[in-house]
Design goal:
Layout: H1 3-18, H2 20-32, H3 61-72, H4 80-87, E1 92-98, E2 104-111, E3 120-125, E4 131-139, E5 144-151, H5 161-168, H6 174-188, E6 193-197, H7 212-218, E7 222-223, E8 228-230, H8 248-275
Parallel strand pairs: 5-6
Antiparallel strand pairs: 1-2, 2-3, 3-4, 4-5, 6-8, 7-8
Length: 276
């Protein structure tokens, strides 16, 4: 018998012994959704994720297993057409992002290819389909959306990409755009509480290139517990009175772009619900 087979058999036996009900529920969920045993973008299949660091580096195997079960038990909160595409490991188009130059980027909802950071991802892609930025999250218990990761451009892309994006989107940062998109999705789900992972609790905390803590604090988040930040229930409204007069024209364009994307997501949600 191969070592991997022996290890997998031992892991299942251990799970069945330590938390039999959770193990039974998860096994049943995998039977109902065979796609959970499939790998996406060469990542770890969802069926095996609870054996590795997942969402929060301090979580136990039991907590990771519960989080996966909570997510896949809640997919009915998404439009039926979206759910079908995601379970087929396909993308859902949410919105175009028009740029100053006349080109456009695309916001997509996809299975996350950062398998430690969440089950779903909001992706900002260019016309060639290259990932520029992504935000990974999982549907949590008690109406929560757990944000486990924010990723920027690949290292192979030009260093000026971030600055170029900022200028093309009237100063709207890609990470802020994706967070706004998630707020819009949360509203469509009936109002979800967003939680963001802290630097210290990130699954790859030793490799972070930018601070999650700083980004959450900029977004008016507060400490939820020692592992997570709790973002405002609704996305804060930005006050033009706090903007310097010479920057207000750009501010208006930036907020108009943000609202245009939010409205496109709302329409996509309605269309996905009708199509189902």
């Amino acid at each position: 018998m191969r070592w991997k087979t022996i290890r997998k058999t031992g892991q299942r036996a251990l799970a069945a012994t330590l938390f039999p009900y959770l193990h039974w529920c998860w096994s049943r969920r995998i039977q109902l959704m065979p796609v959970l045993s499939e790998s996406y973008q060469d990542g770890l299949p969802p069926a095996q994720k609870h054996w590795r660091k997942y969402l929060c580096r301090h979580w136990s195997v039991r907590r990771r297993l519960a989080a996966l079960l909570e997510h896949y038990s809640q997919l009915d909160c998404l439009p039926g057409a979206w759910r079908e595409k995601l379970l087929a490991l396909g993308p859902v188009h949410l919105s175009l992002v028009p740029l100053k130059s006349g080109d456009a980027l695309e916001v997509l909802l996809e299975p996350s290819d950062f398998y430690r950071e969440g089950e779903l991802g909001l992706y900002l892609r260019n016309g060639d389909g290259e990932r520029l930025y992504s935000l990974s999250f999982t549907l949590g218990k008690n109406g929560q959306l757990l944000i486990g990761g924010l990723q920027g451009p690949r290292t192979t892309m030009d260093e000026g990409t971030v600055k170029w994006l900022g200028k093309e989107m009237f100063g709207l940062r890609p990470k802020s755009l994706l967070l706004s998109a998630l707020y819009t999705m949360g509203e469509q789900m009936g109002g979800r509480q967003l939680l963001g992972i802290s630097d210290a609790a990130h699954t790859c905390s030793h490799k972070l290139k930018s601070s999650y803590d700083a980004f959450w604090l900029e977004a008016h988040a507060k400490r939820h517990n020692r592992h997570w930040y709790r973002l405002p229930k609704r996305e804060p409204v930005r006050d033009i009175a706090e903007v310097k007069s010479q920057r207000r024209s750009e501010f208006r364009r930036r907020e108009a772009l943000r609202e245009e994307i939010a409205e496109a997501i709302r329409k996509a949600w309605e269309q996905g619900a009708v199509a189902a």
